[in-house]
Each structure stands twice: as C-alpha cells, then as structure tokens.
C-alpha cells in the first residue's frame, strides 16, 4: 500500500493496519497476559505496576483480562476516530509496547528460572 494514499473506508482498513492490530493483540494482549501470569507464579518475581499487582492479588485472570479488553476497546475507538495516516500510530504503538513488555517479562522469567 502506498503510505501517501489513505485507505478507502468502504473497503475496510489497510493491510498494514490489520497486520499491526494482529501484532498488538498477539503481544500486548496475549503475550503480556501470559508472561505476566507465568512470572507472577514464580517465587521472587513481582509485578512493577501497582494497578496490575492489585488486580493480580484480588481477582487475577478475570480482572486483568477485563482491563486488557477495556484498553483495546478504548484504543480501537481512538483508531476509528483519528484520521489517516495518524490512525496507524494507534496499533503501531500498542504493537511496539506489547513486543517490549512481552520481551521484558520473558527476560524476567528466564532470569528467575535459570539465573
């Protein structure tokens, strides 16, 4: 797709936007969630975010999954509202954050288990 040509709203989002949303869901949604739960189950590993730590202690999977879903709904609404080409920044940001957080969590888990 030509970056200078906006996607046609009648035909749906561009392939780039779809690919970025897939990466965002895979890493920010699933990857972060899974690595957070795995890490939280290892003795000596703690959650840095006070909100997530509270949710894990109180309600675990249900609350954290609900929080993730709410974040996705909010960012999806922003993505639909913001005009192209700026809208591509929404799934791009979530994808980059998701990859970074999943990689960080994986490193913490490996350090706790191996090191």
UniProtKB/TrEMBL annotation:
<keyword id="KW-1133">Transmembrane helix</keyword>
<feature type="transmembrane region" description="Helical">
    <location>
        <begin position="20"/>
        <end position="40"/>
    </location>
</feature>
<protein>
    <recommendedName>
        <fullName>DUF5658 domain-containing protein</fullName>
    </recommendedName>
</protein>
<feature type="domain" description="DUF5658">
    <location>
        <begin position="23"/>
        <end position="110"/>
    </location>
</feature>
<dbReference type="Pfam" id="PF18902">
    <property type="entry name" value="DUF5658"/>
</dbReference>
<keyword id="KW-0472">Membrane</keyword>
<feature type="transmembrane region" description="Helical">
    <location>
        <begin position="61"/>
        <end position="82"/>
    </location>
</feature>
<dbReference type="InterPro" id="IPR043717">
    <property type="entry name" value="DUF5658"/>
</dbReference>
<feature type="transmembrane region" description="Helical">
    <location>
        <begin position="94"/>
        <end position="114"/>
    </location>
</feature>
<keyword id="KW-0812">Transmembrane</keyword>
